[in-house]
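Quick one before lunch.
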Amino acid sequence: MIESRLKEYDVFIAGGAIAGPVAAKFCARQGLKTLLVERARLPREKPCSGIQFPYFEKIIGDPIPRERLCHHTLSKIEMHLPDGRVLSAGFPMLNFMRDTFDEWLCLLAQSYGAEFRDGCAFRDFEETSDGVLIHLEADTGPETIKARYVVDATGMRPIIRRKLKREEGFQKGSTGAALNYYFTADGDLEPDKLYQFWNIEYNNMMFAWVYNKTLSDGKDYWVVGTGYDKDIYQRLDGFFERVKELYHLTNVQIVKKEGYSSSMVFTDEERIWLGERNFLMVGDAAGLIDLTRGVGMDAAALSGRLAAKAIGLAQKNGRPVSEVYAQLMKGLVDQTRRNQQRGIITFKTNEELQAYLDHGMLKMGLNMILQSFLNRLRSPEKQVMLP
Ligand SMILES: Cc1cc2nc3c(=O)[nH]c(=O)nc-3n(C[C@H](O)[C@H](O)[C@H](O)COP(=O)(O)OP(=O)(O)OC[C@H]3O[C@@H](n4cnc5c(N)ncnc54)[C@H](O)[C@@H]3O)c2cc1C
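Model of the flavin-adenine dinucleotide complex:
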């Protein structure tokens, strides 16, 4: 009796950020009845540098409207090396804020026919003989729906994955943190540059950063930020002082601070997990964030697109969806695992960091040029992540 009144979907997707709406768009495009839910009300803020490579747009499969991007496109990188050398190169990058961007992506999924609800959180599920009952908490109260396939796109604290894996691969506290200060100032910083500072005083895993962003008030701000496994405020304050000195910043006013910490164990061999049965993990929920590359939205978008393709294929040929998905994801998973295995290094000295860069930089630079070129020729589903 109760079940007959349930709304039924082919696909249920939790998480309206990158991986979720991309999966929803491509599910809906195949005619699958799709529900995408996001627990926050959109537009919502998400700590993220919001920088991506041009092929990201190709994976999404629709042009990003100009008004969803920041005023300044990033077209150059300025790298400050531990030994004091400064290298510059031209490289076009997309630059956006996640509040406006993620909202657009959810509306895009909706425009393809997916049902989208914000202010609606996934809470729990129960498996039945012919589907999965999904318990939701909407602004209006609790609800239950039914779906055949379930996609977890809830990011680095993935709620469905944690229920399936019973907390395996996670730890209670934080495994690392990132912190950004948004500020206004006069000085010599250039708004079309991504500044990278490779120095263990500021960041012991990769680089500390400075770039320009447009906030929802329509004004441009500078962002200075870093990540560290401890003493994050101290590290960022020290770095900020160096930036002020180098670029002759005056009238500095911090307007906003944002922080982020993760509970995922980065060294865990099991970090990448694509799901089981009719449950698929996408984006950060699948463990695809790649700290070696320092980015994750491209992998999130590609995994969302491939999850949708896997569901479509599984419907057609009756093969287990998790098997089809694993097959489609092989290239991306292999690349991410390789990076995770060799790249999640915390450096103890700047000499160590410099040696790491000297060894890998030329190879990385050449590979970036080659793969950027090849990505223009490759189909959206075969994109290779940079750098
Ligand atoms: C400081 C920082 C800087 C970064 N900079 C970059 C960068 O410049 N470029 C880049 O490519 N990547 C960057 N990343 C990584 C990038 O943010 C992630 O890889 C990307 O956001 C992953 O997207 P996702 O869709 O998998 O998950 P997320 O973006 O984490 O989204 C998960 C969504 O799920 C929702 N949700 C959670 N629980 C529930 C629930 N129970 N029910 C419904 N919804 C739920 C959340 O509200 C959220 O909207 C950065 C990350 C950090 C922390």
